[in-house]
Amino acid sequence: MAAEGKEGCVEEAERYFREAVAADPSNVRNLGRYAVFLEHFCDDPGASDEYYRLALEVEPDNAHNLANYAAFLSTSKRDNAKAGEMLERAAAADPGNATVHSMRADYLENIVGDVEGADAAHKSAVSLDPTCADALGGYAGFLFYTRGDAEAASTFYRQDAAENGVASVRSCLDRLIEGACVSDCFGTRTTLGMHQCVH
After folding, report:
1. What's the structural domain count of the chain?
2. pLDDT per position as a tens digit, 103-158
3. Residue span of the structural domain in which 157 resides
4. What is the DSSP track for 2-63?
5. Does residue 142 sit within a domain?
6. What is the pTM of this model?
């Protein structure tokens, strides 16, 4: 029954997306959201790619759609070179967007293998918006996993929890401090190849 309910919700959401796009085919937010929806809920990379492209035809410098398209290209198409280009365009289009810089940091670390570049991009993201959950959580995960600096990581997780009131971050932090296994919390940190989605 639960699967049927979810399927019904997905079908209903898709109907609403189609209606929204038909009502205003030049609304880049709806085109981009529909692309993300098709990718994550309908497992339709061809249609997702089409809607990302439509959104970027309408507004080529929309940082949100460029960044989400970069994640799509990396995970669904395995086109990491093109994903890197999209992230550079996104960062140039909206240089003050901490989430985009955080995604770029993840790309540099996980795809390119440029740890120093990733560190600089993470610092830039946190500097741009010291309250951005993506930037704080991304940098904390980087510090913990890549740098092996649990103390510095806990500082950024504390800041994230204080700024954003995220109970799960506090729970992860408590387990980190207690020395318990934290892979379930830190293992879901945002990376380009995982759960990132710019809204």
Report:
1. 1
2. 999 999 999 999 999 999 999 999 999 888 888 888 988 998 899 988 888 887 77
3. 97-199
4. HHHHHHHHHHHHHHHHHHHHHH-TT-HHHHHHHHHHHHHHS--HHHHHHHHHHHHHH-TT-H
5. yes
6. 0.77
